[in-house]
Description:
Oligomer: single chain
Largest sheet: none
Helix content: 55-70%
Structural class: mainly alpha
Radius of gyration: 30 Å
Number of helices: 10
Amino acid sequence: MAVFRELRHLSTSVRLTTLYRTGAITMADDRVPGTNGTEVAMRMAVLRPYLIDNVPLTKVAVDAAISIRTVRRWIARYRLSGPAGLMRPMRPEAGTRTFPKEMVELIEGMALLKPPSSIAAIHRRIVILAAEQGWRKPSYGSVRSIVREIDPAMLTLAHESSAVFRDKYELVHRHRGSVAKLVPLFETAFSFGVGHCG
């Protein structure tokens, strides 16, 4: 019985390791790879041969196609906090912008100037201004995300004429108005039996 359990564990471990290496892991309860629960399960599956079967750590790392430093870090975190230590720690500022409001407003203002500047040009100028003001320098990606969050209608109005803005954004209202005029005519036609098939 113990031999059967050990063989089943070994086959599961080999299957999980192979799936981990190929990136084709699927969990029985349909958890999505990359979520914390799945990530912990995958890391535990990689570490299990070392923790339970006393397989050398270098062999575990080679079998899982993971660097030995990463596996050592996982082991240290596992010994410190248990399975919860294998979760990827979240940065407290993740998803929030930590730039001064004035810097964001400057980037938006530069993006709305006419003629339009490229994001690279805006980035170069804002890095110089940030150094002068003592602010943290923004990355190109941060500047790009700030510029892309500006409403496209506002960019059109700033860079093009008001006629282009009207043609681009007010056509929706014109078409809705003409359709609204047709609906009562359509309902009247059906009330008199024009549209009745029979």
